[in-house]
Design brief:
The chain is built from 16 helices and 9 strands. It has helices at about 1-15, 20, 55-70, 80-85, 85-95, 130-140, 155-165, 200-215, 220-230, 235-240, 245-255, 260-265, 275-290, 295, 320-340, 350-365; strands at about 25-30, 45-55, 100-105, 120-125, 145, 170-175, 175, 190, 310-315.
């Protein structure tokens, strides 16, 4: 049964509706105050996004208006006056019953810089439109999005896994465990998932280390192999299981301990190898390579633990125009509501109602 569920979820994800294909019939209601300067949003700010079907919302609003008039109208009534007190409820009910997907995000700060990605802390969807809204929000987030840093449902984990393994048109970056700090840079420091949340990044950095060694300092590999052999260790296991810093540390130890025999047995002149210079060169190579580490050394997810997709952030901008088209659709919907004699003075555009709709829709589907 679990295999069947996962298969069905993958089919839904693979058949994701493109943002442009729904941009005529759907609208997005979001917290709008930050849009002009998204990079200046304060830390730990929560924002809500509601994706709803406009024709369905209009139908529901019309039905509710008709019901109120039928139940409460008296002879000679003023429709605008009658509907004024009901305006907020009519609109929120109409949108609420037409929702297809919701997302609540939080700007970074609580769990580290996290590459400045927005954290998806709440999401729910119907009709396979969850990933569609992910793409839409990702496209207007200045530095993309990432999974909830504290807990992730199985369904959400499947979505992130699909993004990691199948969405090649989405840019990805590693998140660094804030307690371990594999990389030199601080922007990627974050709370990671899984018992070995830093392994994916360590593996990438170790691959970068070996490329550097084999391009510039093949003597390092010779000394490491010699040292591990002398210690009776499994050479290949040690060379592949140690991270870059451990390997360089072992090299320095072997260099000092076996310095007298390195020249005779390996044909390497110790005078030509300065550990301090090696450290400096590796640090320079490491700092230059870290910003593009994912692009140069993407993970093999078959070898990583299941939660590894949660230790990435995801970014794109291909759906930006569709996002703003759908926010325009929301404005048009609100304007249409006023033509239906709903009182614009009672229409909540502050975002508080959107937050309540996200909460209610999420609770209904979880």
């Amino acid at each position: 049964m679990n295999i069947l569920r996962n298969y069905i979820r993958n089919l839904i994800l693979e058949a994701m509706k493109s943002p442009s294909s729904i941009s005529n019939d759907y609208a997005i209601w979001s917290t709008e105050y930050w849009l002009e300067n998204p990079d200046e949003i304060p830390e730990n700010t929560e924002m809500d996004f509601v994706l709803y079907n406009v024709p369905k919302a209009k139908e529901l609003v019309q039905m509710e208006i008709n019901k109120i008039i039928e139940d409460e109208a008296e002879p000679g009534f003023d429709e605008l006056e009658l509907l004024a007190d009901y305006t907020g409820d009519i609109i929120s009910s109409g949108i609420g019953d037409a929702i297809a997907a919701v997302i609540r995000v939080r700007t970074p700060g609580q769990y580290g810089n996290c590459n400045k990605a927005w954290e998806v802390i709440r999401s729910a969807a119907e009709g396979g439109l969850g990933p569609t809204l992910y793409d839409l929000v990702m496209s207007i987030a200045p530095h993309g999005i990432m999974s909830d840093r504290s807990s992730v449902s199985r369904d959400a984990q499947n979505i992130w896994g699909f993004y990691a393994k199948n969405r090649r048109n989405i840019d990805k970056q590693y998140l660094d465990d804030a307690d371990i700090e594999v990389t030199w840079q601080e922007d990627d420091d974050c709370n990671t998932h899984g018992g070995r949340g830093a392994d994916m990044l360590k593996n990438a950095q170790t691959k970068m280390f070996w490329d550097w060694v084999r391009e510039e300092w093949e003597e390092i590999e010779q000394v490491l192999r010699y040292g591990y052999e002398q210690d009776g260790d499994d050479v290949e296991e040690y060379l592949t299981s140690q991270d870059a810093e451990e390997l360089l540390h072992d090299y320095e130890n072997f260099y000092q301990y076996y310095e007298d025999v390195i020249q005779d047995e390996l044909g390497i002149d110790p005078a030509d190898i300065d550990p301090e210079k090696l450290n400096d060169e590796w640090m320079e190579r490491r700092m230059d390579g870290e910003p593009s580490l994912y692009d140069d050394y993407p993970p093999n997810f078959e070898e990583e633990e299941p939660k590894s997709p949660l230790n990435l952030n995801y970014n794109t901008d291909y759906a930006e125009s569709s996002y703003y088209s759908m926010t325009d659709n929301h404005s048009d919907f609100i304007q249409w509501c006023t033509t239906m004699n709903l009182d614009e003075d009672f229409i909540d555009e502050s975002g508080d109602t959107a937050s309540l709709l996200v909460r209610d829709f999420f609770n209904k589907h979880n």
